[in-house]
Recover the amino acids of this structure.
């Protein structure tokens, strides 16, 4: 048994009256001991559920991210005209709505803005369809070694950090999520994890407003210069179409002070009001994505234009959201987004042959 970990567990697990928040250093130490399995299974499970009940602070999330940076994978900086967008999506996947972020990544990369995503396989508690599954359906297998992900990222502007292969220490904690039956604070922290060593723009989905505040505090402590928070589809970064998109546009100065601008985007003002595209099966979703990449009109195309237009504007490529929507449409109808997917397929196929 880890006596050092027991003291940290006692601190957060003592109830509403005597319990205390961890400092950033303590959260780093606790996360490190869990990742390295220096704490016992009983201690890890107890910590996760106690932390879940009490809710993490921004300072604790920053400490957890410190441990991920120390022990986890990191894609190295590449030369680019724009900061790399790092999308934080819930690892436990999608069950109700189509993931748009793959199409968003392809048009951003086609326009010159690099993109990094991260995630794993099907994961509790939601057990939804993971992003890696949709990428695989489009012909991209991210189970390659990290050095080869780096080469693909440098060549195409798109990278994906895949937990089972690239961060087995974090993958080792996944069974605890199923056993405790609840999302632990790790699931919150993952939304703002940035496995990229260069100039990054962190984009994070959220559901509950208090989570956004935690993100702001953690990112300020971590000196992340630019970030975006999105109350998106199923907690993702995908903008909804059936309601106003609630977005936070954040910057952090050298003193660690946060400036957050609230942006509310009604899709009807841009001609995209309607139902979110439902997720039927992965196979039908992948076929629908391929149809969009072929430039064919559909409800998914509308969702892709809505998201693409916003992110092309947010990353600084387009002068306005409307201009971004028009540029996204050109990238789809002229085949540039599809060509980016083909580049990605060719790069990863060449790597598979080398292996």
């Amino acid at each position: 048994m880890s006596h050092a970990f027991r003291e940290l567990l006692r601190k957060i697990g003592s109830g509403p009256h005597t319990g205390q928040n961890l400092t950033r250093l303590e959260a780093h130490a606790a996360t490190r001991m869990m990742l390295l399995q220096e704490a016992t299974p009983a201690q890890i499970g107890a910590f996760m559920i106690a932390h879940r009940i009490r809710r993490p602070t921004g300072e604790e999330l920053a400490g957890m991210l410190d441990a991920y940076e120390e022990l986890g994978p990191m894609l190295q900086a590449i030369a680019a005209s724009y900061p790399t967008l790092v999308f934080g999506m819930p690892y436990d996947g999608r069950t109700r709505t189509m993931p748009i972020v793959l199409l968003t990544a392809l048009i951003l990369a086609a326009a010159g803005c690099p993109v990094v995503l991260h995630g794993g396989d099907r994961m509790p508690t939601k057990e939804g369809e993971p992003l890696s599954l949709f990428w695989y359906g489009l012909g991209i297998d991210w189970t390659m070694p990290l050095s080869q992900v780096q080469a693909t990222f440098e060549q195409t502007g798109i990278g994906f950090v895949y937990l089972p292969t690239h961060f087995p220490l974090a993958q080792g904690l996944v069974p605890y999520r199923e056993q405790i039956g609840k999302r632990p604070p790790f699931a919150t922290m993952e939304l703002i994890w940035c496995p990229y060593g260069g100039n990054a723009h962190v984009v994070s989905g959220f559901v509950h407003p208090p989570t956004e505040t935690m993100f702001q505090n953690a990112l300020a402590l971590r000196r992340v210069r630019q970030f975006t928070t999105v109350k998106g589809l199923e907690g993702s970064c995908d903008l909804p179409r059936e309601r106003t998109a609630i977005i936070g546009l954040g910057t952090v100065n050298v003193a660690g002070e946060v400036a957050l601008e609230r942006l509310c985007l009604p899709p009807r003002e841009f001609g995209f009001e309607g139902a979110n595209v439902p997720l039927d099966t992965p196979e039908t979703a992948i076929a629908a994505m391929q149809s969009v990449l072929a430039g064919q009109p559909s409800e998914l195309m509308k969702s892709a234009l809505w998201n693409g237009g916003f992110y092309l504007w947010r990353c600084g490529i387009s002068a306005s959201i409307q201009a971004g929507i028009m540029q996204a449409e050109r990238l789809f109808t002229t085949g540039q987004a599809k060509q980016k997917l083909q580049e990605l397929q060719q790069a990863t196929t060449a790597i598979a042959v080398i292996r």
Remarks:
- The radius of gyration is 20 Å.
- The longest strand covers residues 245-252.
- The chain has two domains: 3-54, 81-355.
